Fold each of these.
Amino acid sequence: MTAAAVVLDVEGTTSATEHVYGVLFPYARARIADWVAEHGHEKETRAILDDVDRIGGRPAGGDDKEAVRALTEWADADRKVAPLKELQGLIWTAGYDSGELSGHVYADTLLALRKWLNGGAQIYIYSSGSVQAQRQLFAHTQFGDLRSRLSGHFDTRTAGGKRSPDSYRAITRSVGVPVRQVLFASDTVAELDAARTAGWRTAWVVRPEEGGPADSARPPATGHPVYRNLLAVAEEAQL
Ligand SMILES: CSCCC(=O)C(=O)COP(=O)(O)O
Ligand SMILES: [Mg+2]
């Protein structure tokens, strides 16, 4: 049986953690203050800043210095807070547009996408990165624009936090397929646990390139089937 829907994590699963932490995060972190100064009056950025103020318990439209300070602290602490992820998405979009940034997906990700599509599955992305950030990353990969392969995107704003079973329940309702026909692939056990609690099938992606155990070593038992990359999931996962 083919999974009706495959849902993929990004960092460490479709794409290199090194790219996210070594390229994307520092790029956005260095530009937060300048971005707010240049775009703080524009609707999209204003909404983000107002959300930062709301979370901080400040009246909307206050001193943007406070919002910049909060956003910078969240970036340094790698907080998966929606307004930070949305601001990163805006900054990265400008970086892709200027040619300073490119996206990254592992080569096996491309092969896995093809295999799932040929088998009739729909493919979704679920990341803490904003939907815009996800679309831009997949639009600018070293293999070209992969967006047409994807049926949809979910982030913490549209679905909720990745460690909450309710988020996976919300995605199930949105994709409209039976819960046992949804497969989630991620490198993070806490995310897989939440998906399994919601009734999904799971695939733990433990990539040697990401520092995961080599072939001879066994990852700790979690009850989640283990695969060395996404192509292995596409070829071997029992659905
Ligand atoms: C969509 S690219 C940036 C990924 C990101 O911002 C992030 O925080 C990683 O989250 P993930 O859920 O993909 O591990
Ligand atoms: Mg991940």
Amino acid sequence: MTKEKWGQLRQRLLKTVGQNNYTNWIEPIEFRAADDGIATFDVPTNFLGNYVSQNFAELILHELKTEDPSLRRLQFAVPTPVGAGADMPQAPQPVQSSAAMRAVKPAANTALTTAPLDKRFTFDTFVVGKPNELAHAAARRVAEGGPVTFNPLFLYGGVGLGKTHLMHAIAHELRARRPEMNVLYLSAEQFMYRFVQALRDRKMMDFKEIFRSVDVLMVDDVQFIAGKDSTQEEFFHTFNALVDQNKQIIISADRSPSEIKDLEDRVKSRLQCGLVVDLHPTDYELRLGILQSKVEQQRLNYPDLEVEAGVLEFLAHRISTNVRVLEGALTRLFAFASLVGREINMELTQDCLSDVLRASERKITVEEIQRKVSDHYNIRLSDMIGPKRLRSYARPRQVAMYLCKKMTSRSLPEIGRRFGGRDHTTVMHGVKRIEELKTQDGQIAEDLELLRRALEE
Ligand SMILES: Nc1ncnc2c1ncn2[C@@H]1O[C@H](COP(=O)(O)OP(=O)(O)OP(=O)(O)O)[C@@H](O)[C@H]1O
């Protein structure tokens, strides 16, 4: 094994683990040497080393074995400064110059290291449209680092809609504007991991002190701690201590606080007491704007490639699932076009992206329908799914059941289960009722049409 070989192998890992994991965890580690069946990697912090070892070691070993089958195990070590210890097998490797690495503070301060930030995720590269304008404005406001006005800022939305991008953008901006501020960004999973590590190492006092000493705490994907009682408890205390000191907290999740199951009520209510903003699913215009901006970025790598008129519009129309898929499709298109030496036109797009286009054929989910219908009738999702029989909840519920039956391939019992465990006969009755009303009640017919169009967008 050589460093060059590792450089090639990790490109293969990029495909397996995805860009985010790659940037956060694989890129910062550096192959040092292989000896006696053990491959050693330099890592910037113990935390990162432990994380990679627990989550990616098998995958990495698998790739390394294709090059050197005698390898049996991996080890991760934080390099000591030159001359600092006789037991290190080699002098330390120079620290990589990627932005992800620069984001990591020195190993001595392990406990306070922030998770690596993606240098591409800035406000400049974030395209704003109607679905995300409020979230963007709120993120901008907290990124100014001025007096805390809403605490916490809670950003939520479906997969790949830009939550992490906005969180990183806030952290980048705060670093630039207020370098004296102690900004800690990490995922809820990392919070739990550090908490468990502190318990194991009997360093709870250090843990508490560190988390209480930050100026801005940013926790991504907080839904992860649902159902994890001790982590929630600790998170709750950390949260309260920071709010009491008037320190800014920014949280993201894939759903609103009230919709996160197995989250204690006191945590839920704490999370709701600041500003809760929703990143809505993208609309056509936003997708087109994002594609145009990403094409500009691709041009840096492929200055000679042109995109024929109509291709971006086609992609924005056809790939409406999430921005990550859209971005991946574009990257692939550019790489493919440059490899085969063709221009990016409709024909090449169809050839190169046939699988993505097939997979993106609009699959509407029960959750999407429930969310759209509850928004439309201005009721809470939990009331629509819950047991209340009031007409103001029951009618939207029936509308949603009807749409689920017509627009998804779910069976009646499955739909019943998603509506608070109702029986399939209840769903059948609801669907029938709406079918009748559709012909008698103009308002219902109009609502159905509006909702159908919004869902198909
Ligand atoms: N408005 C936008 N402008 C530019 N890029 C965007 C926008 N929204 C999302 N993206 C891009 O889409 C990709 C996915 O975004 P991100 O990782 O922030 O999603 P997420 O909401 O955190 O998703 P997940 O729930 O999977 O963690 C990123 O590469 C991000 O840069």
